[in-house]
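== Sequence, structure tokens ==
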Amino acid sequence: MIWSDYLDIILVAIVFYNVQKMIRTSAAARIAKVVLAVVLISWATEEAELHALNFLISQVLAVGLIALVILFQPELRRMMDHLGGVSLKKLINPEKAGEEVDYVVSQTVLACEAMSREKIGALMVFERHQPLDDYMKTGTIVDGLASEQLIRNIFFPKAALHDGAMMIRDGRIQAAGCVLPLSESNRLSADLGTRHRAGVGMSEASDAVVVIVSEETGTISVAVGGILKRHLAPQTLERLLQKELGRSPEDQNRKDGIQQLMQKLMGKEEKHHEK
């Protein structure tokens, strides 16, 4: 094997890893299931020599791409927006992405600690795998580094954008003053206001991690998957955000698997040259 073979293997592994991560979202999964079902039916009818049915399926496949574009136009647009926002450095250098997570978590914790002490309300949404572009469009584009000072300035009571939600993607504040869906869950406490219901609603509608600071009590809360965790100390908040936003053990195992594969291939190549 030559160096181009190693490069080919690495690029294929990266593509497969990011494709499987992308289809975790319900919208992308719907598209993948439809495509897979049609392909499997086509193969099965051909193997079973069901010529009439196979002919019909082949006609569906002939116009399938156009049909998918029409039927799943909103989902495809969100997927393309997400792919366009993936930075090359994040794909080739996951360690750098980990450093960005550490930075944004530390700055968020510092800002929440100060706002909790001063009883300043805040609502911060951290995008994960599922793109949140539609919600970002309801606010004002910021596109700034997520620093403690900028977070506190945006949520300052007299600031123009303090009432809405802040959307954070890849360590940057993409938008502020955004409108979120309210949760209709009857499990939520009656004393929770609009800010908390919006945070829980966002976590129900997506895989985002939402941090809320209460304006009345200064309490720090986090909503994930429709579950609200309240009365968090800054240290607990930091650990929780690191766990939810950092590289998961599953991601680390995939990375280790790729590295082990490359080491085996390199070892075989060295033995081949020795011979």
